[in-house]
Amino acid sequence: MLVLFVGLFGCACAAQSVFYDSFTGNTVTNDVVKGHIKQNTTFWCLNELLPCNPLEGRRVDGSCNNLKNPNRGSAHTPMLRLLPAEYDKDFEPRRSKNGTPLPLPRKLRTWFLPEGHVPDKAMSQLFLHFWVFIVADILSVHDTVNYIHWRPHCCQEKGKTDKGCIPIKIPDDDPVHRFSSIRCMNLTRPESFQSRGCLRNDTSPERITTATPILDLSHVYGNSMQVLNAKGRLFEKGLLKFEVAGGKIWPPSYKNNKHLCFLNQMPHETRCHDIPEFGGNSVLGVNLYLIWTWRLHNRIATELGKINPCWNDERIFFTTRDIVIAIIMQIYYYEMMPALMGYENLVADGVLSGYPGFRDIYDETILPQTTLEFPFALRWAHTVQEGNLKMYDIKGNFLKEMKVVNLTLRTGYLDDNLEYITHGSFRQPSAKFDYVVDPDVAETVLGPHQLAADVFSSDLTKNRYFGFPPYIKYRKYCSGKTYRTFDDLLDVIDPERVELVKERYKNIEDMDLMAGLWLEKYVPGGRTPYTFYCIVVDQMLRSVVSDRHWYERQNRPNAFTLEQLLEIRKASAAQMLCAVGDKVTKIQPHAFYLAGRGNEMRSCEKIDKINLWAWKDASCEPKNPFNFDFTSNI
Fold this sequence. Notes:
This protein has a domain at 469-511. The model is unreliable at 1-14 (pLDDT under 50). The strands form 6 sheets. The chain has a two-stranded antiparallel sheet. It has helices at 2-13, 30-39, 42-45, 105-112, 126-136, 142-150, 218-221, 225-232, 284-307, 313-341, 343-348, 373-378, 414-425, 439-443, 455-465, 471-479, 495-504, 513-519, 530-545, 562-568, 573-580, and strands at 18-21, 46-49, 119-124, 168-169, 184-185, 243-245, 248-250, 388-392, 398-403, 429-431, 586-587, 602-603. The two termini are 24 Å apart. By secondary structure, the protein is mainly α. The chain has 21 helices and 12 strands.
């Protein structure tokens, strides 16, 4: 089937492409295409797709995942709303029940979330790095770059007349800034189909991103064949482009100083990945896992080439990509999320299979989309973000620490410190799962990029500009229960926090979704709020049932054999770091948890490995079968 995949892809490339409206998914006429060319909006508003072939494998651009709706799954396609949007006139944020503006986001944040340093006793920093890496697969960094680089003036006089600005007001009695002259934090409106010229401004704003909405590592492999071919593929032995510097393997870097890594301390820090469309230069966790995943691809491709010497570059590359996506999804679904949400909970809700073999719950009536609420709810993870990055040597000796907030868009810092950051990632605890937030994340989350920035106030502001309905409507969506008074919240929020809510919101219908996520109790057997769990489970199920190429499916193009799937089941965060982490020779087997009783550090030789001989092609024979390692593990 793999040979067939390559041949069919070649045939599809020779066919004439079709243009689709990125928002509606409908085909468009040549006159419409010409209109977008004239307005310079083709990149955002149109998807140019090759005809679908039901036997081809997963496309890089995400198209043809749903054969009846070819453009769904592509970049720039709309997100799904769990509940209808609620705005005030002119699509400004909804107002309170009595018609007055809702309480200031900064006022609510400082009231609900106190600041402090409290380490967790169970979870490691590694799980947060992996978490943001997964989020980056379905989002893009345009909103952040917008107010860091393109619109840094929203708190200045110019910002008062810029419709794209939505600055966060700081009250005079702010617990921190009452002692400073700062009364505003920079922020811009979320990018939408309207702001990009795809829909009229008199229509409800709908979020637009450059990532594909399916979990396919688009931030590693790109969201188009053009990007992948230009920036990613080496076109030799199935490899991604790479360079070796300082004894380490890296993705290719820019050779000039004009790049996105604004915080590099020149001239010493020069590294910046030459893959800007992929988003790998953003926050630290995304950067780390991009490097590790890049290395993992090349390691697997190299081994597959040895096992199957008759395979060409194309076949090795796309087989490797399929394996890497499956490994990351296995870690995400079966290791990380059970640690957060409870394994038994996820099995009971159908998110996970309780058996190691195939499962096939594909439903072509469910479109491959991400709900708008899903990546927003994931921002709750900011509450467990540790602001200080601790670095260790290979023996576990503490070396130094760095502010995480100072490493956004600063890839050059990794040149001399990647090894120490890697070893710190599974030795350092995350922040405690409680209601206390890290001061740096709450006050200077963008480091030198902004004079002051509060990620939580930003999250709450975006909550309103996304048009999310009141929190209690999501509670009804999730539980079926109607909430009429503040005391009705006692089933999911502790009494003392309900009192905090009463003092800031005049009516229960005023309460913001994000505020509810901050204040809720955690689900039994898990570490996440009730409504967070509901929203995330919905999307995790949606991602499986809507993905025609989901790795657990037996009936998909280029499906794994049972033997291959069982090897993928061995994937773990520890195994990945043993394979591609700098000088990692010893690690705890459950690396998202801190080392301790029952999870003691052990040699990488004792960490379960994936044997790539499950992908042996019987039609190929090793060039030297009498001198070949038959345990090609990763």
